[in-house]
């Protein structure tokens, strides 16, 4: 069976699009109680457009609920410590965005130990076993490590799509090397420092030569002889920070064993709930255009 004839599951990085809506939508949207709902309005428009455009039979939207409680915080307390917790107004909107998705019949994935990335990775891994290819709807570079031969990542806002070859074009490493790459050069967004002095280009060059972080650390005595800038200093840093690099990889590697439904039908879009949607439309004070789109999607 060729790639395009295989069924596709769209796995949406919901938290990313809620945050984007929060930052991009004006503060003029309020619910019936006077609370701000700009992120809900923006996220709902995004989800409507995605459903109208793709008409996916199988999909899920994953949300983060583990900013301070994920298994990574237990391993490394500084993980994401550079991020401010969402303000109460945004926390409230995250809950409402999940309600909108569920009322539209869209399966929602959320867990307090695993992050949205892990839920998407585990769903992808599970559905691959059922013969599905996956389209990850997100701009996050971390997802590159999940892409198999037939999978795609879709930066929806820029309408850019890429497969495994695109990961190499962007980062200089192959999908199976992305976690190692991030462990070496660090990820400031998640407060992962990486190995001091090892930048993105050096990390990519090291992995091109050695293949993996484990092979690199096992053969670190070869590094001074490589044609990379500061090779001797790089080798010394790798020796000094070898255990830290292995720890960072435990943080950068997306888990594939998060609790997701084992059967493909659990990620099939359902009929949706018109009564629940009507109540949400009133509560969120959606305008007539959004209400019309939502009702059409509920059909």
TrEMBL record:
<protein>
    <submittedName>
        <fullName>Exodeoxyribonuclease IX</fullName>
    </submittedName>
</protein>
<keyword id="KW-0540">Nuclease</keyword>
<dbReference type="Pfam" id="PF01367">
    <property type="entry name" value="5_3_exonuc"/>
</dbReference>
<feature type="domain" description="5'-3' exonuclease">
    <location>
        <begin position="5"/>
        <end position="270"/>
    </location>
</feature>
<dbReference type="Pfam" id="PF02739">
    <property type="entry name" value="5_3_exonuc_N"/>
</dbReference>
<dbReference type="InterPro" id="IPR038969">
    <property type="entry name" value="FEN"/>
</dbReference>
<dbReference type="GO" id="GO:0033567">
    <property type="term" value="P:DNA replication, Okazaki fragment processing"/>
</dbReference>
<dbReference type="InterPro" id="IPR036279">
    <property type="entry name" value="5-3_exonuclease_C_sf"/>
</dbReference>
<dbReference type="GO" id="GO:0017108">
    <property type="term" value="F:5'-flap endonuclease activity"/>
</dbReference>
<dbReference type="InterPro" id="IPR020046">
    <property type="entry name" value="5-3_exonucl_a-hlix_arch_N"/>
</dbReference>
<keyword id="KW-0238">DNA-binding</keyword>
<dbReference type="GO" id="GO:0008409">
    <property type="term" value="F:5'-3' exonuclease activity"/>
</dbReference>
<dbReference type="GO" id="GO:0003677">
    <property type="term" value="F:DNA binding"/>
</dbReference>
<dbReference type="InterPro" id="IPR008918">
    <property type="entry name" value="HhH2"/>
</dbReference>
<dbReference type="InterPro" id="IPR002421">
    <property type="entry name" value="5-3_exonuclease"/>
</dbReference>
<dbReference type="InterPro" id="IPR029060">
    <property type="entry name" value="PIN-like_dom_sf"/>
</dbReference>
<dbReference type="InterPro" id="IPR020045">
    <property type="entry name" value="DNA_polI_H3TH"/>
</dbReference>
<keyword id="KW-0378">Hydrolase</keyword>
């Amino acid at each position: 069976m060729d790639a395009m004839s295989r069924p596709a599951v769209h796995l949406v990085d919901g938290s990313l699009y809620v945050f984007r809506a929060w930052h991009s939508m004006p503060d003029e949207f309020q619910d019936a109680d006077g609370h701000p709902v700009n992120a809900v309005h923006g996220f709902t428009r995004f989800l409507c457009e995605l459903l109208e455009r793709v008409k996916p039979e199988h999909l899920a939207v994953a949300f983060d609920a583990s900013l301070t409680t994920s298994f990574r915080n237990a391993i490394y307390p500084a993980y994401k410590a550079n991020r401010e917790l969402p303000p109460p107004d945004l926390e409230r909107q995250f809950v409402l965005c999940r309600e909108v998705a569920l009322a539209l019949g869209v399966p929602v994935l959320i867990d307090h130990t695993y992050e949205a990335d892990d839920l998407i990775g585990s769903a992808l891994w599970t559905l691959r076993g059922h013969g599905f290819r996956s389209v990850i709807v997100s701009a996050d570079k971390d997802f590159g490590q999940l892409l198999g031969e037939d999978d795609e990542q879709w930066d929806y806002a820029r309408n850019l799509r890429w497969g495994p070859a695109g990961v190499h074009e962007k980062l200089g490493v192959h999908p199976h090397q992305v976690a190692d790459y991030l462990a070496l050069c660090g990820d400031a967004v998640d407060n992962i420092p990486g190995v001091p002095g090892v930048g993105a280009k050096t990390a990519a060059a090291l992995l091109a030569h050695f293949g993996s972080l484990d092979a690199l650390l096992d053969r670190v005595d070869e590094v001074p002889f490589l044609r990379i800038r500061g090779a001797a200093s790089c080798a010394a840093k790798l020796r000094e920070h070898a255990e830290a690099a292995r720890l960072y990889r435990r943080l950068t590697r997306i888990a594939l064993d998060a609790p997701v439904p084992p059967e493909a039908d659990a990620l099939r879009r359902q009929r949706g709930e018109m009564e629940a949607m009507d109540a949400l439309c009133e509560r969120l004070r959606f305008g007539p255009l959004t209400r019309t789109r939502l009702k059409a999607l509920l059909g």
